[in-house]
Please model this.
Amino acid sequence: MAEDNSKMEVEMEYNIKNNGEPPSDLSPTSSNNEPQVSSSEQSPTSSNDGQQIQIRKHAGRARGTLNWTADENAWLINELMKKATTTRLQANFPGVKKRSIGSLSNHITSLRKKGLIPRRWRDHYSAKIDGAPWTMDEDVEIMQWHVWSREFIDAKVFVANNRSGEAVRMRADYLCQDEELVSIIKAIEQAAREDTYELDTALEDGEPQDEIYEEITGMEWLAERNIRQAIGESLASRTLDSESITYVWG
Model:
C-alpha cells in the first residue's frame, strides 16, 4: 500500500511539472515484453470523435495521373467539340500512352474548373440558343483555328460567353462562307509565320534579343489588326447578322 502511495506521489509531481502530461518513463510497457516502437517510427494518427485512427504510409507513391502534354490537351479540346463520348475519346486517344475513362473525365472537369474551356463546351444542344453577340476576339480565334486546319483552338477565349464547342463550329462555318475572307486570313497568317521564322533565325545568329522580341511583338500586332479589319469588312458586307459582333480594335 505504501508503494502504491509512493507511485501516486511521483505521478502527481510529474504532472505538475509537465502541465498535466504524464512522464515518458511511466508509460505502460507491453504485456508480452515486446520492444516499444518510438513515436518517430509510428505512422501518424488523426482524431475523430476521440478515437485514434491509424493512417497508412504510402511509401512515396504519387497519386493521380501523369501530367498532360500540350498536344494531348489540344487534341482533347478539339475532340470535345465533335460530340465525342468519353468512351470514344478513350478509344481514339493518340499516342502510345493511353488514358483511362476516369482520367479523361477528371481532366475534363479540371479544364472547366481552371477556366481553360467553357462549362458548356460539350453541351451541343445549346449551340443554337447561344444568345450573346459574338465578339471580335472570338471571331479572330475562330478564323485562326480554321486556317491552321482546325487543330488547335484557345478555348479560354470563349469562357466569358460560355460558348459550346458546337456553337464555335457553327460560327466558323458561317464566317467561312466568305471564301475571300478565308484566303485573306490564310495569307496574313502565312506571312506572319515566315516573318517569325526569319526573326527566330536572326535570334539564333546572335542578333540582340530585345530588338528581335520587339519586332516579333510588332509583327504579331500588325497581323491581328489586319485580321480584325478583314473580318469586320466581311461581316459589314453581309445582310444577315451584320451587327452581331462587338468591334474591338485595341
Observations:
- Residues 125-246 form one domain.
